[in-house]
Design goal:
Oligomer: single chain
Strand content: 5-15%
Helix content: 40-55%
Bound molecules: adenosine-5'-diphosphate, tryptophan
Largest sheet: 3 strands, parallel
Length: 335
């Protein structure tokens, strides 16, 4: 039987090329050799998104984004997290095996408390239980489908290790392989896509290149990438520039070596480097943008695809849950 690849994306903002190269593309590549389950993690989004219109809109955006990027719903089980109630039942069961200390060590929670301390506020100010227990819900997403591999960016690896820890402690408790222990898969080449300012591209840094922006917005964004003050004539180190790091993601080998030489020779200014970057980015994104726009125009078809995906996912989910409930003794009074 084929192994299972599973991943989810939170609908918390506009998709950017970091999401595409760090999460969407590697996942779609894996869908050729694995049974794939890909979804929109809307309950994870609810932790921070309290405006219903916005949450609905970003959920639709992320769903359309997956499809525009090439997800084939006939081949991949594709759904909205909130359509699978079994995930939430499993979350409760996993809670019973998750130490609070493990959650205290989760990066997202630690960062949030550290920020509060810096500001001299109560360490837990503004932190809801959804954020604190975030890794348990994510573990349930993964474990429920007996996932073997989870394609994600580097920042998510800790969460997958936690899911594996939780599954292992359950297996150890019952002395049998009740749940599968998942593994993260990261593509080293694109482990961290740099943003406009050279830091990791992230919506929380406001340094993103959006995936489906209209062509003129894409161009304007690329022309605003931060550069140093080197003159046109000066030779430049391609590897020290985020423009070239981004270029490598979109250009073929010949284009890459030709442009690297031009950087090293001098005589090419940052404006020209950005124009060349725009050319290859737009070449890759234009067909996706067209598909995205068509999908966004047809909400009923999109809904149908997500419903069908949920119908395929739920029996698989129910089987895992039944197995675990029986072993845990919460299903009936019979032996
Ligand atoms: P953001 O940092 O913009 O909030 P998310 O945390 O929603 O992005 O990330 C969604 C997925 O995209 C995750 O799997 C994450 O690892 C991946 N990802 C996000 N930004 C990048 C990046 N700059 N490089 C590589 N992968 C990324
Ligand atoms: N936490 C992931 C992120 O922030 C999204 C996510 C939720 C996820 N559930 C998942 C990723 C399960 C992989 C597997 O990007």
């Amino acid at each position: 039987m084929k192994k299972i690849s599973l991943t989810g994306i939170k609908p918390t903002g506009e998709l950017h090329i970091g999401n595409y190269f760090g999460a969407i593309k590697p996942a779609l590549d894996l869908a050729n050799e694995y049974n794939a389950h890909y979804f929109i993690a809307d309950y994870h989004g609810l932790n921070t998104m309290k405006d219903p219109e916005e949450l609905r809109a970003t959920t639709k955006h992320v769903a359309a984004g997956w499809l525009a990027a090439g997800l084939d719903p006939e081949k991949v089980i594709f759904y909205r997290q909130s359509s699978i109630p079994e995930i939430f039942e499993l979350t409760v069961m996993l809670m019973a095996f998750t130490s609070k200390g493990l959650m205290n060590r989760a990066h997202a929670y630690k960062d949030a408390t550290a920020k509060n301390s810096e500001k001299g506020e109560d360490t837990d100010a503004g932190i809801n239980m959804g954020l604190f227990t975030y890794p348990v819900l994510m573990a349930a997403d993964i474990i429920l489908f007996d996932s073997d591999v989870v394609p994600v960016g580097k920042d998510q690896v800790q969460h997958i290790e936690m899911a594996a820890d939780i599954a292992q402690s359950i297996n150890a408790n019952y002395g049998q392989a009740v749940l599968k222990t998942p593994q993260a898969v990261i593509q080293e080449k694109v482990a961290v896509v740099p943003g406009m300012d050279g830091r990791k591209m992230s919506k929380s840094y406001g340094n993103v290149i959006p995936l489906f922006a209209p062509e003129n917005v894409l161009k304007k964004t690329i022309m605003h990438i931060t550069t140093n003050s080197q003159s046109v004539e000066e030779p430049k180190d391609p590897n020290a520039s985020q423009i070239f790091q981004l270029y490598k993601l979109f250009a073929d080998d010949n284009e890459q070596s030709a442009l690297a030489n031009r950087y090293r020779e001098g005589g090419m200014g940052w404006g020209e480097a950005k124009t060349e970057l725009f050319r290859v980015v737009n070449r890759c994104l234009s067909p996706m943008r067209e598909r995205y726009e068509a999908i966004m125009e047809d909400t009923p078809s999109l809904e149908k695809i997500l419903q069908k995906g949920a119908e395929k996912a739920r029996p698989i989910a129910a089987a895992t849950l039944k197995r675990f409930r029986e072993i845990a003794g919460v299903n009936s009074c019979k032996n």
